[in-house]
Every structure is written in structure tokens, then in C-alpha cells.
Amino acid sequence: ARVLAIESSCDETACAVVDGLRVRSSVVASQIEVHAPFGGVVPELASRHHLDSLAPVIRAAIEQAGLEPTKLGAQLDALAVTDSPGLVGALLVGVQAARGLALATGLPLFGVHHMEGHLFSAFIADDSTASEPEPFAPHLALLVSGGHTELVEVHGLGRYELLGATRDDAAGEAFDKVAKLLGLSYPGGPIIDRLAAEGDPSAVAFPRAMLRSKDFDFSFAGLKTAVAVHLEREGQPRSRAELADLCASFQAAVVDVLVAKTCAARRARGCERVHVVGGVAANAGLRARFDDAAAREGFRLVTAPLRYCGDNAAMIAAAAAAHVAEGRAPRVVVQSSVALDEARATP
Ligand code: ATP
Ligand code: MG
Ligand code: FE
């Protein structure tokens, strides 16, 4: 199905057009500079900036997909919008714009759970890719992003079983908070990732929380505290090399737990296919360690393409396209917080 989707759940304003799993256009306007001075996303500012960015972003996505703004009703099968979870004010801006488009075009509007979108980020392919994208299929997913760290067994479209989740901070949140402690800018994930590549991951022994717990839950708040305590005792790093060592040691602690627990869940569930998706899936250290684990244990690993790890609307459009193809009824319910396995439980 041909779908145009809008994503505005956090600090990225995005619009994309897909045909099934093929991405025809994907435009993302990031608000990083808006929120960086505050060291995190300011909800009120996010809403206001979505309001300003949305129209030009939608126009660009329509144009780049080669569509005619006045003929969308005939050129598309459906519209989609992220309706949960996220900052409620930010979600409402995207949903209201999508409703306007639906009114103008007569197209049905599908609400999509943001994390279901992240699941689809590992299946979509750009127009330039020669091979056909593989259809959505069962797998074990590690959803690892700014607000979530979850292990989900995907049995099929809309059939998501939550195996475990973080009990406190998400992994991306830990990266961002530790970056803040180190005086680095926001978002901290990509910065720590780059510095970690130069450092020694065994320089500082940080805790690996819940590594040996029998469940598939995570906890990262203690690790953040461990970094704070280390800085209180030793002071801020005095050289780039020391900073890199700290980043590498922190990152290794996060990566160790993510990889070990995902592999344990895979063995327990007998999954042959593992997907790593979400903003933190861009992490070079995490990708390398998952590559090693896949080679060692012989499972198939799929990491989302780098440009679709962070928030985008192509993944949202692709999820909606799959629901359209299955003949699901369109439905939009704005919710700031709802679990993936509880969203749209009723048809
Ligand atoms: P959610 O998807 O849970 O609602 P979100 O949409 O805000 O949260 P994403 O945009 O998916 O989150 O991911 C952003 C997060 O990913 C940030 O915490 C950021 O620091 C982190 N991140 C991005 N790149 C990297 C990287 N290379 N290494 C580690 N973390 C990264
Ligand atoms: Mg973001
Ligand atoms: Fe996200």
C-alpha cells in the first residue's frame, strides 16, 4: 500500500512516503539545536517547533516522492501518524496535521505505535536498493532508544510479546545523562560512541546490572550513578584520552548487558533471527558486539540501517502500509504512554 506518514512524538519532525516497505521519500527535521542548550528535550518547545516545521517537511516529502500535492487522494492508499507513545503535546501536533490531510484527501488515517514503527525500521529499503525488501517476519527484537529498552518477541504483524524491559532508565537515556555528567552536549549517544572508539573499555570497571538475573529486564540507573560517583572521586577527566577511556568503559557496560540479555532471550525462545532497532542501534560498539555474537552463536542478525535507527516517518508509514495490506480498520488514539503489546489490543 502507498502511505504518507507523519512522525512528531519527540524532537524529530518527520514525513515520509512509502510503497509497502519501499521508501519513496523520507524527510526528517531535527530539533537538536533547540533542545541542546537545555541538555534534554523541552516538551513545550518541541510542540512549538513541530508546529513550525511540519508544513515544510510534509511538502518536501510529497515533492521528493514525485507526488502531486492536489492529487494525493488518488496517488495514495492511506495516511498514517504516530499516535503513541510520546510527548502528548508533540503527538497532538502531528495528529492534527494528519487529520487535516485526511479531511482534504478523503484518505483513511491509521494511528501507529512509535515502537512498532521502530520494528519496521529493520525491514524498509530505499528506492535505490536493487533487491526486494524481505517481508515482515517473526523475530526477536531489541528495541533500544531514548525512551525504551525492551526485548520483544515478534510473532507476526500486531502480535508482540514483551519479554522484558528496563526497570528505570532506557539505554539511550543513560548515554544522554552520562554525557551530561561529562559536560558533553545533547544528545550524548553519538558523542560517547565516537569517543569510546578511541578509549580502553577496561579502564574503569563499571557495574553490569542484572547481567545474571534470570528475567529479561534491564536497569541502567545504577550505572549512571556509578559514573557520577567515579567523577566525584576522581574529578573530571584531565585529557581527551582519559575522557575516551571513561566513555569506552561506560559504553562497554551498557553493551555487555544488552548483548548478553538479548542472546539469553534468543536461546530461551529459540529465535533464529535477532533485530536491533531504535536510536541506540546506531552505536558502533553495540553493532560490532552483536556481529560477534551472531557469528559465534549462529543466528541471523539484522540491524536497522543507520539512517533509520533514529526517529523517522518511513518506519511509521511502512508499519501502517502493513496494516492496510491486512485490511485492518483505521484508528487513531493519542496516548502518551502505552506498551507495544497493549496498543490496539481491540480491533
Ligand atoms: P523512543 O523511541 O523510546 O520513544 P526517542 O524516539 O527519543 O525515544 P530515538 O530517536 O529512537 O529515541 O533515539 C534517540 C536516542 O538514541 C538518544 O538517547 C541518543 O543519545 C541515542 N543514540 C543515537 N545515536 C547513538 C549512538 N551512536 N550510540 C548510542 N546512543 C545513540
Ligand atoms: Mg529524537
Ligand atoms: Fe524513537
From TrEMBL:
Broad class of enzyme this protein falls into: transferase
Annotated substrate binding lies at 143-147, 176, 189, 193, 283
Per its record, the protein catalyses: L-threonylcarbamoyladenylate + adenosine(37) in tRNA = N(6)-L-threonylcarbamoyladenosine(37) in tRNA + AMP + H(+)
Offer a single GO CC term for the protein: cytoplasm
Q: Which GO terms describe its molecular function?
A: iron ion binding; tRNA N(6)-L-threonylcarbamoyladenine synthase activity
The alphabetical list of record keywords is: Acyltransferase, Cytoplasm, Iron, Metal-binding, Transferase, tRNA processing
For this protein, the record's InterPro entries field holds:
ATPase_NBD, Gcp-like_dom, KAE1/TsaD, TsaD
**Signal peptide range in chain numbering:** none
Q: What SUPFAM superfamilies does this protein map onto?
A: Actin-like ATPase domain
Which domain of life does the UniProt lineage start with?
Bacteria
Q: Where in the cell is it found?
A: Cytoplasm
The alphabetized list of GO BP terms reads: tRNA threonylcarbamoyladenosine modification
This protein's major location comes to cytoplasm
**According to its UniProt entry, what is the function of this protein?**
Required for the formation of a threonylcarbamoyl group on adenosine at position 37 (t(6)A37) in tRNAs that read codons beginning with adenine. Is involved in the transfer of the threonylcarbamoyl moiety of threonylcarbamoyl-AMP (TC-AMP) to the N6 group of A37, together with TsaE and TsaB. TsaD likely plays a direct catalytic role in this reaction.
Listed name of the protein: tRNA N6-adenosine threonylcarbamoyltransferase
* Species annotation: Enhygromyxa salina
